[in-house]
Amino acid sequence: MRMIWALVLIGVCVLLYIFNRGHIDLNLLLFTVKKAQLALVLLGFTAAGVVIGFLLR
């Protein structure tokens, strides 16, 4: 059951990334990224969340 929920959430994330084609200014602690693609920023934060979840498991 957990695998099905994980696959559904991955599918929702993929759809979100496909339909968000804008740009965003990303302010991090040490530097600022101007005009970054929104889909890549969301993908990066999702990947970081997956790594954190895997390490906490």
Description:
Keywords: Membrane, Transmembrane, Transmembrane helix. The protein has 57 residues and is α+β, with helices and mostly antiparallel strands. It has one domain. The chain has helices at residues 2-19, 38-56, and strands at 23-27, 32-37. A two-stranded antiparallel ribbon has the order 1-2. α1 runs antiparallel to α2 (38-56). The longest helix has 19 residues, at 38-56. The model has no long low-confidence stretch (mean pLDDT 80).
SSE inventory with pairings:
Blueprint: H1 2-19, E1 23-27, E2 32-37, H2 38-56
Helix pairs in contact: 1-2
Question: Which key terms come to mind for this protein?
Answer:
57 residues; alpha+beta; two-stranded antiparallel ribbon; flat
Quick structural summary:
With 57 residues, the chain is an alpha+beta fold. The protein has helices at 2-19, 38-56; strands spanning 23-27, 32-37.
Name the quaternary structure: single chain
What is the mean pLDDT?
Answer: 80
Strand residue content: 15-25%
Helix content: 55-70%
Q: Main sheet, how many strands, which sense, barrel?
A: 2 strands, antiparallel
How many structural domains can be distinguished in the coordinates? Answer: 1
Q: Helix count? A: 2
Secondary-structure element string: HEEH
The chain-level structural class is alpha+beta
For the termini, the CA-CA separation is 17 Å
Biggest sheet, spatial arrangement of strands? 1-2
Number of DSSP strands?
A: 2
Instruction: Pick out the low-confidence regions.
Output: none
* C-alpha geometry: flat
